[in-house]
Description:
The radius of gyration is 23 Å and the shape is elongated. Strands 3, 12, 13, 14, 15, 16, 17, 18 and 19 form a nine-stranded mixed sheet that branches. Strands 4-5-6-7-8-9-10-11 form an eight-stranded parallel barrel. The protein has helices at 11-18, 27-40, 60-69, 78-86, 103-112, 122-134, 170-179, 206-226, 252-270, 283-286, 320-324, 413-416; strands at 5-6, 9-10, 22-26, 48-53, 72-75, 94-96, 116-119, 139-144, 189-195, 232-234, 276-279, 290-301, 307-311, 330-332, 342-347, 356-363, 371-375, 395-400, 403-408. Helix 5 (103-112) packs across helix 6 (122-134) and helix 8 packs parallel to helix 9. The protein has twelve helices and 19 strands. The chain has two domains: 5-24 and 287-410, Lyase, Ornithine Decarboxylase, Chain A, domain 1 (Beta Barrel), CATH 2.40.37.10; 27-285, Alanine racemase (TIM Barrel, Alpha-Beta Barrel). By secondary structure, it is an alpha/beta fold. 46% of the residues are buried. Ligand LLP is lined by residues 53, 56, 74, 97, 157, 197, 200-201, 236-239, 280-284, 320, 379-380.
Amino acid sequence: MSNFKFHGVDVTGLAHEYGTPLYVVSEDEIVRRIRAIKGCFDERNERCSTFFASKSFLTKDMLRILMREGLGLDVVSGGELFLAQEMRFPPEKIAFHGNSKTEREIAAGLDCGVGKFVCDSMDEIELIDRMAGERGANARVLIRVTPGVEAHTHKYMSTGETGSKFGLPPEMIKEVVSSRGTSAYLSNISLMGFHFHVGSQLMDNSTNLEALGVILGLIKELRDDYGFETRILDMGGGFGVRYTKKDNPQNIADFIGGMVDKVESFCRSYGLSCPSLVIEPGRWIVSDAGITLYSVGSVKRLPGGAVYVGVDGGYPDNPRPALYGAEYEAVLVNKVDLPPSETVSIAGKCCESGDILIRDIELPEAQRGDLIAVLGTGAYNHSMANNYNKNPIPAVVMVKDGTPRLSVRRQTYEEMFSGNI
Ligand code: LLP
């Protein structure tokens, strides 16, 4: 009987060598996807550049890949910025996002010279202006716009609707633009343009196109009424992937191409100079590049027919099913040749009823010691991992050209408690 292979690697050996749960990530797949995105965006013309959303997966190796491939980086915290600095990621290619940056984080961003801050409130714009002034610096700023559109996705992943905690509505943007240049107000920032991100795991670009309608209208109004020229337009990320057969994402070239076409034709029609364009994908680049390996522990067959296959991980290494009802596919690694024989739920090990990794999946009969691979866990798994029930964060193994290597060590119990006094 043969075992399930991931990018040419027999993962049973990895489980023995590094233990489970284990994240296994294909560097080749990440690179292939980065190049695919660049092919339909960055290479379209010199105005287009891709920034990777580091919240989806951030390790030293990931930063090495991004630097080699020449992508920019979107960070949302002092922690993400810290690792980027440690790895000497070019600061001018970093965009600092986040709706509630602390003064300490803003200071870190200013001091290392991040390329731009993406601001989410008036308060923050004024704070960055003051802090840049104190340093005799000038900060390049984009303002996040709330376009007032609703994305067709989980409500926790929709970010562009009116009243969202993210961004400022167009009428407030007009106030900021009109008040610039009056006295010394905001004289330590350069307002380069705008940002929007309507949501994540989007199956097509319809909401983005709707949002673009609003934002391009705003850009034109700002030019007509105040002579303000938008130099950068950041169109966010959110490009959906296929977690299960139910997901049918639009082809990436069409998704992105449709947005660029819309901007270019609008600018042509109204005689606007076309701004530099940015996208910030996270999930699309890393999701399919990762799997998580678990060992089967107790298997419980209940009188009513329910079967729970317990594994040695769950909520701590992948909180997405509990948070968003996210769905995944999985294989029984060492029984991949056997036909499915029962419908089971893969139960995580946390003391939470919601800690079910997959509900109602058809698998061959599982028993203690079998190995399960949950597929498509490259995005928002390692980056969202936590220590609930004091489970250590699993290791990450990277696979390149069929050769695995340890990329992030498994957290030890000692490390987990090292801050305790
Ligand atoms: N840009 C901004 C401003 C964002 O807020 C996000 C995601 C992205 C880019 C990247 O989105 P992506 O291309 O990865 O979909 N933790 C959740 C999703 C929340 C994402 C938040 N922002 C999940 O596990 O699905």
